[in-house]
Design goal:
By secondary structure, the chain is an alpha+beta fold. Among the domains are: 26-152 and 400-461, Rna Polymerase Beta Subunit, Chain: C,domain 2 (Alpha-Beta Complex), CATH 3.90.1100; 640-743, OB fold (Dihydrolipoamide Acetyltransferase, E2P), CATH 2.40.50.100; 791-876, OB fold (Dihydrolipoamide Acetyltransferase, E2P). The longest helix has 25 residues, at 403-427. The protein is globular, with a radius of gyration of 36 Å.
């Protein structure tokens, strides 16, 4: 029986929560909202999501630039069907996506080109699946969830390895969002090499020449201090064995006497004296400590100019014909400096700027000269014992791709294909006049979208067993999927709990088995920022006192601070009570004076996920059993008579509300009508009826006995009565697995831990018969059975009540068409749909077919092919 009184909870917690819980579905809803910007006027849309993709792909021109297709705006059409209709008809809940495109036609050549015509049209680009209020998508009638993906962030990463001879080898890798990977490496001889896309290596100075630092002098000045020394007197002898920082040429013969980067010898000094050179620039360095990586590399580099370097890169990447200078420059431009071929993304640029202390604008998403020089400098510093290498499992180097970004990538692929087709059509000399509608084929984009939603590893059939399993599924983060890891390749380190998971990913909730550590759950207070990094909130502490501010920190930002636990005592003025406080700094737990504390946790539950935070006294649990408990709660079936737990954790109401299974009042008012199907609330703001005597009431329709994805029963029950006053956000109806608006996954039963004549040996349990009689743990399951009727070679199959060799008793529950009637009680083996299949051996002649049609089938010519209830089934038919 549904509860009629609200649940009253007493909080025994000693630590007040520092901030309110966020909406637990924001990870899905906000991401899709920022991707689509449906409620924003076209002119005011930010350059993110779908808007950004359109602006990157358009304008599209043909080779002669006589036709240009420009993007104006996009809009969503009206939804054809509601969510309920889509589920009933096995359709996709979507809206038509239309783009307004402008085709500019020009005539003439060169400077004489003028605009001949401008055609602006709305073009249909296919159906775009829409997200529901509950963070799901309805695809072909079934509810699906797009799981967020955790992957390595674009940017630059420094690493170290050990050579077989025991010497450390340092390397750096630039990982873009889209484009070629570049890897720098210092070998055992202190020479730096570069690999582009794991091809054959070249010297690092070759790529520096190619990007604009063409001479040895320029390269040396980039990485070394240069000083000018006189070549007369005793000082001249001191520069022997130093490195020259300039090239000296005999002006008469044109011969290079001394090359920049070479070691100066006595012989070189004699030659310079003959040429009457008074001063020489040399490299200033401490040769005992520092490795001369750049100078060693210059000595081995076969190239000496930009042109030679470009040719060398071209020959490595495109072996075969010798290139022209334009071809070689074009290849380098396409590799790293063309936004259509190479893209670090705003994230990659942000990461490189942070790591190398650069201030290149975030919208500059290709590589820059300074990126190459800064990476080489940092790599040399690592070789010389300065700086630090990156930890690839650190959450500062891993980011989440949410639903909005995954859809953006899809549209990028789809619209790139459309752009290719448009260019082909523009170049074809066709007699038909071109229009935007004629140029675009909507199937190209919609096929990419359909494939992703239908078969991607990240588009999953929603786990709808109970409200918690729904919520957990939507807050899941997977390291698997396209562009991610595979179970076989993932090692122990990537699966392990990292200190940066604190407050971001749950250390408890993860699957057992091959996916352990690869699939994680977002912590309760965590959120994902615009760059895809996971943030967690902290209370700001200054001079040992809480300032009242709550700040969200990424893993990188957190590493720079000392953070106190949530259970540290604060006095009435918000000051830390203890002079010495146990704190957290990276993966260490120092005891520090309270004045050194920068931040403090907002709540003890910010460490764990929603499922783990529903376990009372979690801190006393063994970690392995807590993991099992978190996972098993998601398998609890919604009971016929749910009961809210006697001992809760305070998360039950939030979980049930955010999962979207209950019905909440949109506005405050008074309940004027209640039945099993609907609830009517008259809002307080509507005091008087309109001219026709009607009130503008809020009507809420309840879901009744609907089948879930896991065959459990989705049923809502009203918990208010006529005359009740309700506030905005109050629970009006309970859903599956809820009681009084709180999550209720089980029952409060009396359990005794004691032996009973050996009947409960090991894992056996003795139950009271009353639990079965009173339906304490009874749950309803709704199963759907389908039967197909085909045309066979031997004739058509037929749904009928006339089934051969079946007693009249077995046909009692069938109607005149041979289909079981609604309300019939069914047991295993009962006929649900009567069907007969012809078993004749020969093809029927037209005359025989006519006689059959008039007089019906002969009993002996057909066999029974009826749909029967499977073994173990017992229930009532609710729909046919």
């Amino acid at each position: 029986m549904a509860r009629k009184t609200p649940v009253v909870r007493k909080d025994f917690g000693r630590i007040p929560s520092g901030t309110a819980l966020p909406n637990l579905l924001d990870v899905q809803l906000k991401s899709y909202e920022s991707f689509l910007q449906a409620t924003v006027e076209p002119e005011k849309r930010e350059r993110i999501g779908l808007q950004q993709i359109f602006l990157e792909i358009f304008p599209i021109s043909d080779i002669r630039e006589s036709h240009t297709l420009e993007f104006v705006r996009y809009a969503l059409g009206t939804k054809r069907y509601s969510i309920e209709e889509c589920q009933e008809r096995n359709m996709t809940f979507a809206a038509p996506l239309k783009a307004t495109l402008r085709l500019v036609i020009r005539e003439g050549e060169g400077k004489d080109k003028r605009v001949k015509d401008i055609i602006e049209q709305d073009v249909y680009l296919g159906e775009l699946p829409l997200i529901t209020e509950r963070g799901t998508f309805i695809i072909n009638g079934s509810e699906r969830v797009i799981v967020s993906q955790l992957h390595r962030s674009p940017g630059v990463f420094f690493d170290e390895g050990v050579h077989p001879n025991g010497k450390q080898i340092f390397s750096a890798r630039i990982i873009p969002y889209r484009g070629s990977w570049v890897e720098f490496e210092i070998d055992v001889n202190d020479i730096m090499h570069v690999h582009i896309d794991s091809r054959r290596k070249m010297h690092a100075t070759t790529i520096l020449r190619a990007v604009g630092y063409s001479t040895n002098e320029e390269i040396i000045r980039l990485f070394h201090e240069v000083k000018e020394v006189p070549l007369s007197g005793k000082k001249a002898e001191k520069i022997v064995d130093s490195f020259a920082a300039e090239t000296i040429i005999d002006t008469e013969t044109g011969e290079i006497v001394l090359k920049a980067g070479e070691v100066i010898t006595d012989k070189d000094l004699d030659k310079l004296a003959d040429l009457k050179v008074k001063k020489l620039k040399i490299v200033e360095s401490d040769e005992h400590r520092e490795a001369h990586v750049i100078l060693n590399t210059l000595a081995k580099d076969p190239t000496s100019s930009r042109e030679e370097a470009l040719n060398k890169i071209y020959a490595l990447l495109r072996p075969g014909e010798p290139p022209t200078l334009e071809m070689a420059e074009g290849l380098l431009e396409k590799l790293f400096f063309n936004a259509k071929r190479y893209d670090l993304g705003e994230v990659g640029r942000y990461m490189i700027n942070q790591r190398l202390s650069l201030d290149i604008p975030l919208n500059h998403t290709t590589l820059h000269q300074h990126d190459f020089t800064s990476i080489i400098k940092y790599l040399i510093d690592l070789r010389n014992g300065r700086g630090f290498i990156d930890d690839i499992d650190h959450l500062g180097n891993r980011r989440a791709r949410t639903v909005g970004e995954l859809l953006s990538n899809l549209f990028s692929v789809g619209l790139s294909r459309v752009a290719r087709n448009i260019r082909e059509r523009m170049s074809l000399k066709d007699s038909d006049p071109l229009t935007p509608q004629a140029l675009i084929n909507a199937r190209t984009v919609s096929s990419v979208i359909e494939t992703f939603f239908g078969s991607s590893q990240l588009s999953q059939f929603m786990d709808q067993t109970n409200p918690l399993s729904e919520l957990t599924h939507k807050r899941r983060l997977s390291a698997l999927g396209p562009g991610g890891l595979t179970r076989e390749r993932a090692g122990f380190e990537v699966r392990d709990v990292h200190h940066t998971h604190y407050g971001r990913l749950c250390p408890v909730e993860t699957p057992e088995g091959p996916n352990i550590g690869l699939i994680a759950s977002l912590a309760t207070y965590a959120r994902i920022n615009r760059y895809g990094f996971i943030e967690t909130p902290y209370r700001k502490i200054k001079d040992g006192k809480f300032t009242g501010d709550i700040e969200f920190l990424t893993a990188d930002e957190e590493d720079r601070h000392i953070i106190a636990q949530a259970n540290e005592e604060l006095d009435d003025h918000g000051r830390l009570v203890k002079p010495m406080v146990t704190a957290r700094q990276r993966d260490d737990y120092p005891v520090v004076p309270r004045e050194k504390i920068d931040y403090m946790d907002v709540s003890p539950r910010q460490l764990v996920s929603v499922a783990a935070s529903l376990i009372p006294f979690l801190e006393h649990d063994d970690a392995n059993r807590a993991l099992m408990g978190s996972n098993m709660q998601r398998q609890a079936l919604p009971l016929l008579n749910p009961e809210t737990p006697l001992v809760g954790t305070g998360m039950e109401k939030t979980t049930a509300t955010d999962a979207g299974v209950t019905i909440l009042a949109r506005r405050a008012g008074k309940v004027v009508y209640v039945d099993a199907q609907r609830i009517v609330v008259r809002p307080n703001v509507v005091a008087r009826p309109d001219e026709l005597g009607f009130y503008e009431d809020d009507t809420y329709f309840l879901t009744k006995f609907k089948r879930s994805n896991q065959d459990t029963c989705l049923d809502q029950r009203p918990i208010v009565e006529v005359g009740d006053s309700v506030s905005a956000g109050a629970v009006l109806a309970d859903g599956p697995g809820t009681d009084g608006g709180e999550l209720a996954l089980g029952r409060n039963v009396l359990v005794a831990f004691m032996p009973w004549s050996g009947y409960n040996f090991e894992d056996a349990i003795i139950l009271s018969e009353r639990m079965i009689v009173d339906d304490i743990f009874t749950s309803i399951h709704i199963e759907e059975f389908e039967l197909q009727v085909r045309d066979t070679k031997r004739g058509s199959e037929e749904i009928t009540r006339e089934i051969p060799n079946v007693s009249e008793e077995a046909l009692l529950n069938l109607d005149e068409n041979g289909i079981v009637r609604i309300g019939a009680e069914i047991e295993a083996g009962d006929i649900l749909v009567g069907k007969v299949t012809p078993k004749g051996e020969t093809e029927l002649s037209p005359e025989e077919r006519l006689l059959r049609a008039i007089f019906g089938e002969k009993a002996g010519d057909v066999r029974d092919a009826s749909l029967k209830a499977p073994p173990g089934m017992k229930g009532i038919v609710i729909d046919t």
